[in-house]
Amino acid sequence: MTGTTVKEEIYLDQAKKLSVSFAKDAAQRDKEGGTPKQQKDAIRQSGLLNLLIPQKYGGEGGKWSTALAIVRELAKGDAALGHLYGYHSLFVSDIRIKGTEEQQAYFYPLSVQQQAFWGNASNPLVESLKGDKQLQGYLLNGTKAFGSGSPDSQYLWLSFNDRETGQYLNGVVPTDRTGITVKDDWNAMGQRQTGSGNVDFKNVRIEEHEVIRDFVENPTPFSTIGASLSQIILTNVFIGSAFGAIEEAQNYTASKTRPWLTSGVEKASDDPGILRKYGELWIQAKAASALADEAALILDEAWEKSKKLTEQERGNLAVHVAAANVFAGNTALDITSKIFEVMGARSVHAEYGYDRFWRNVRTHTLHNPAEYKLRTVGNWVLNQQYPIPNPYA
Amino acid sequence: MTGTTVKEEIYLDQAKKLSVSFAKDAAQRDKEGGTPKQQKDAIRQSGLLNLLIPQKYGGEGGKWSTALAIVRELAKGDAALGHLYGYHSLFVSDIRIKGTEEQQAYFYPLSVQQQAFWGNASNPLVESLKGDKQLQGYLLNGTKAFGSGSPDSQYLWLSFNDRETGQYLNGVVPTDRTGITVKDDWNAMGQRQTGSGNVDFKNVRIEEHEVIRDFVENPTPFSTIGASLSQIILTNVFIGSAFGAIEEAQNYTASKTRPWLTSGVEKASDDPGILRKYGELWIQAKAASALADEAALILDEAWEKSKKLTEQERGNLAVHVAAANVFAGNTALDITSKIFEVMGARSVHAEYGYDRFWRNVRTHTLHNPAEYKLRTVGNWVLNQQYPIPNPYA
Amino acid sequence: MNNTQTIAASQEKILELANQLAKEFSKTAVKRDREGGTPLHERNLLRKSGLLALPIPKEYGGYGACWPIVFKVVNIIAKADSSLAHLLGYHYLTVCSTFLFGSTKQYKTFYKETASQQLFWGNAFNPRDSGLKAVRENGRLMLSGSKSFCSGATDSDRLLVSAQEEGSDEVLLCVLPTHRAGIVTEDNWDGFGQRQTDSGSVKFEDVIVYEEEILYKAAEEQKVFPTVRTHLAQLMLTHLLYGIAQGALEESKAYVKAHTKPWISSDVEAAEQDPYIIQQYGEMSLNLHACSALIEKAVTEFDHAWKKEDALAEQQRGECGVAIAMAKTFTAKTALHITSTIFDGMGARATSDQYKFDRYWRNARTISLHDPVAYKLRDIGKWYLSSELPPITPYS
Amino acid sequence: MNNTQTIAASQEKILELANQLAKEFSKTAVKRDREGGTPLHERNLLRKSGLLALPIPKEYGGYGACWPIVFKVVNIIAKADSSLAHLLGYHYLTVCSTFLFGSTKQYKTFYKETASQQLFWGNAFNPRDSGLKAVRENGRLMLSGSKSFCSGATDSDRLLVSAQEEGSDEVLLCVLPTHRAGIVTEDNWDGFGQRQTDSGSVKFEDVIVYEEEILYKAAEEQKVFPTVRTHLAQLMLTHLLYGIAQGALEESKAYVKAHTKPWISSDVEAAEQDPYIIQQYGEMSLNLHACSALIEKAVTEFDHAWKKEDALAEQQRGECGVAIAMAKTFTAKTALHITSTIFDGMGARATSDQYKFDRYWRNARTISLHDPVAYKLRDIGKWYLSSELPPITPYS
């Protein structure tokens, strides 16, 4: 990205260092699954978790475009950690999007002070967590699936339904609140260290000040941009994965690939087919990142406008983010599968774990269907209609 | 593009108005071929021809990124006019790139004063124009093919070889110089009004101050960036064509396309397949433009550095431009062929002339082979080697 | 010679004849693409060749060729000139529609006169156009209105016509002599591709239809067999697309070898040694080969279905339709890809108007829009996912 | 029953047997993909089934199945478990290599003992690895060194071995009992795909080779026929890829119908009615169908070439190679596309480790790297552009 400030450069530099260190054992940790405790702690210590928290509450007051550049950088080394950082940033921001100023004032200083990582318990597809209204707050019972980042988190961003009225609400609770069990049972083919398993709630108290309901009482276009945030985070995880894959492949081809027996060249890195394929892969990745960078700037403007964001601006953001997301997803799928063609048969050995790139991308490109994102964009191009806000558009 | 200044907005606004008026009879003029005299005059009157000429010589002192945005905008309405404007900008700039300060001081005020359009007689692939050294300057004899913009031009940017030494030189002559015959014999399947035919030279005098040889005597990396300029101009012609095609298709689908008999929808614009395809096409075009915009910024920096441009910076520019070019070319080919699938069988009628988009793009994507651009980029990604400067990379 | 040998020899003769015509047509294909209009000279060559009677059984004076041979002939012509192949293929489709929709007496009559007089058939049949009305006046059936996309109507001898019966949903099918009073074939086809197919409109002004010209079987909706007309039409289009792709690839190969200079940074001595050009031709010829394999399968299935005649069951009709949809979809995609990609190898000078190499893409693009590929894919997908047969329509 | 009927009945029996085994294998395919290692139980089931003798002529105790049937069996197993199909296919390849490279006496002996004892063959043959040396010492031939990518060597009874003769460019081919002193099959295959193929290395330490174990024909370079071993290997790989694609598409279809919920904004009641899912399955099944058509053509050509034996000419060998290259290239591309795209329809929950649906992609990706697709395209392109036959190599 162009036009970065000195401060942003420092953040990105930190992210780069973290990413390089994460890359070293990413293949091994992919095999093991579970929680990357040590790596999460390294992120905690870096201070990057506070990037989006306003300065008045002790944070860095950074921009979303910076947070996304960090996501991309981390994902280059390890897509799971890029994901965890991105979703942490989303949940922290959700308070600002859907909650009150008082809730920011309450949670943000705590988060900064505790170097807190925020996790997820808010999958909107299934109404599996119910709240029974109390005099103050709710009593929560049920389960939430796809709880990315819930293991080793300090806070959980959750969604639940009022058992009586069906009302959809959000909330934030400390992860160690009595009655919460983070199952840590995520075992998928990719993004294996994102801890995206189930979170159980048994008679969990959520206090009134922890219940997020301002978006219900004072709905604005701004209060619905969470969908775009989650989509653009994933976009940057895909792009980071794609560049990470190209980088690993480049190292491999340059040092290990043997020229093909009828190639007539002395080094694989002079093979005309391999050269053009590297061009093709990199150009695709670069186009994806350029498109995502444009969307990030639109997001920065929207973030700046905050509650003043118009419906049209919200729609414009959603369309550009959907476009960037589906392009990056398809591109990353293609790249992470084709890198093997420039490395050769021996690159399948488990010691390298190069298949993790494809498995990671394939797993999280399924977050919501690419085809419906194409439709969202197409409906705007053809009919000038912005998407009706939902958790994915 | 983001971050445009007020002045740039004004230029772009002018370009947009011109583009809209060009679009009206673009199909008709495509059929006729020949020279778009009236349209070229409209560009002359707009003052946009002076955009890149420094203010001290009476020009606007604009940036290349602005010139390219204008190329794109014009190409949206008519790819031939986008091309003519882009190549005019290139030839004007060639003086700065390869000539002396004195030559700028000589030609620029003349060009501004005459609202001059510059044309081409410099195809480097064939040594078909020879210069016989005179006491002062040369006597030129021969022919140059692919003379884009030579009809209805005031100046020609030419290349020739010293008959004795073989030395490759450039030069600028007024198009009406005695002995020059612009054949105006371009008759290709696309870009039909670019006048890219032959230019004949019979005992044409070129004076010493018109001979461009500073790049020979004082070669710098900057003096070889013409290749990148031509490639990024074409890039923006492709992108403009792609957006123009989508826009025409959108109008057509919304107003004329009937829903398919088994579609189950009442309007073609509600067809799920058509919607997703519009999404797909627009996202591709948008990715191409984002990538090209990034390259344009790198070009702006290089242009600013001028003779201080390092070899590495020149290489970096060439790689990014090649990437943007090949991506835009492939994208535009795909889009201009697929628009018909969202319009239907009746869209082939000649009255619309929608095939011109594909014919235009297909014609000028052959300027130099896409495959070798992929190799150029790949050789940098894999081997960290910048292209050896040639007229195309 | 035994029987098989005789058939083989006569097939060879037919293909030889088709090749000769194709060679003749290819000489002027560029010129005629430029001019558009009606290829009168070429239509007469087709008449004289006898090939118009190709699928008509021998007992009625034709060659009695089986469908695989008929398609092969259309394909051979399409390689040279897809407009002429379109006219010929639609002629076959139209003549043989009388076998599907007419009474025994009717198709015998049409077959015989077509073979003996070398009649050229055209159509005014577009099922998506309800602009032609049939009215009964004083016991006489009259047609008024117009039809669009009437490929091959100009200079035809017979027209297969579909019209909307007034006051009913019924579609009336009939065969009329093109010179019948009140019929005007309009010279208004101006598509950018298939430029000599005369796919413009036909106007009808109080045109009398006689009882024996009406194909009544068309209304018997319970029958499956007549609906294979759709399959026949789709296979004709598939063979046009295949021929265009073949022609484009062959002609571009000849150009590359004769004219293309090796690229400045290629380090090869001839363009055909360029690794990237080789790679592209590898991919293109591979895809073309896949077309051929898919088409072969579809033609075999169609041949079987056709031979069943009235015993044809809906299941077989549907499965045959899926095979054809597969062949057509893949061939359309391949034809569009090849006709655009050939330029990469040939280079910038190949865009010169003298070659009209863009006609391949323009022709393929035009034919491939006949009915949407997206709905073919839907049919295939529903069949694979849910064993649903394609709906019986004029396009599937 | 006449002769044709008898053959058909026995073919049906074989395919039935293969299907039964495939069903059995599919029950544990996920578990075994997770574990990797040697599928001893399954290998013994293959031994017991008698299928190891499938291509061995009846006179030597085998089934005498023709190649199309042998490939079909490999394909059936591959749909369920491509590792086991790999082992079986390479077993056939290796046994039958003795017919290509051995004397009449040799292959008869090998055929007979394989059929009577249900021997499982593996290989130590990798032509890209020159790490195994043959040395003559005191008149005895000894092997020392190692070979990589030795699919199926572990738990095998016979090994086809290639070694570099010291002091010469010659490659020595021989068949050794796997338990011969000095041979150690190493358990070091850890590819992310084809996890139970044991494609690790084999170590040789002063391994004696007896005269009758050496396949001398290998050195007779003027003969074309032995070089069809490459074709056989390529067709085996093609059938593995095809089976993987089929298995992935079938299993994903079952999942979509049983588990996938319609998307929130889809307005359909079941996932299989989603227009985008239908479209994707349309495309995938169409491409799979094209694979099948291309493979059928290639197998037919191979069958003809094989039957020519020593009369096989270079031209036919080359054209057959092009047909195989086309089938393999297209199938590899299709398999990679399908094994990745199935997830779009199935949705996020299908990534759960319990299903191991990613094994299809991992397996296809692994097999498709056996030799570069780019060079197959080059062979095809050179053939199309310049009528050049593919070079005779262990891969083309």
Q: Can you give a write-up of this model?
A:
The complex is a heterotetramer, with 2 copies of chain A (393 residues) and 2 copies of chain C (396 residues). Chain A is α+β, with helices and mostly antiparallel strands. In chain A, 52% of the residues lie in helices and 11% in strands. Chain A has 12 helices and 8 strands. In chain A, strands 1, 2, 3, 4, 5, 6, 7 and 8 form an 8-stranded mixed β-sheet that branches. In chain A, strand 4 and strand 5 (168-174) form a beta hairpin. In chain A, helix 4 (64-77) runs parallel beside helix 8 (226-255). Helix content of chain C is 54%, strand content 11%. Chain C has 10 helices and 7 strands. In chain C, helix 7 (275-308) packs antiparallel against helix 8 (314-346). The mean pLDDT of chain C is 94. Chains in contact: A-B, A-C, A-D, B-C, B-D, C-D. The A-D interface holds A 125, 146, 187-190, 258, 260-263, 273-274, 277, 333, 337, 340-341, 344-345, 347-351, 353-355, 358-359, 362-363, 365-372, 375, 390, 392-393 and D 128, 149, 190-193, 263-266, 276-277, 280, 336, 340, 343-344, 346-348, 350-354, 356-358, 361-362, 365-366, 369-375, 378, 391, 393, 395-396.
Q: Can you lay out the helices and strands and say which pair or pack?
A:
The complex is a heterotetramer, with two copies of chain A (393 residues) and two copies of chain C (396 residues).
Chain A: H1 6-24, H2 26-32, H3 37-46, H4 64-77, H5 79-98, H6 101-113, E1 118-121, E2 129-133, E3 138-144, E4 155-162, E5 168-174, E6 180-182, E7 199-206, E8 211-212, H7 214-217, H8 226-255, H9 272-305, H10 311-338, H11 355-364, H12 370-383
Parallel strand pairs in A: 1-4, 2-4
Antiparallel strand pairs in A: 2-3, 3-7, 4-5, 5-8, 6-7
Helix pairs in contact in A: 1-3, 1-4, 4-5, 4-8, 5-8, 8-9, 8-10, 8-11, 9-10, 10-11, 10-12
Chain C: H1 3-35, H2 40-49, H3 67-80, H4 82-101, H5 104-117, E1 121-124, E2 132-137, E3 140-147, E4 158-165, E5 171-177, E6 183-185, E7 202-209, H6 228-258, H7 275-308, H8 314-346, H9 358-367, H10 373-386
Parallel strand pairs in C: 1-4, 2-4
Antiparallel strand pairs in C: 2-3, 3-7, 4-5, 6-7
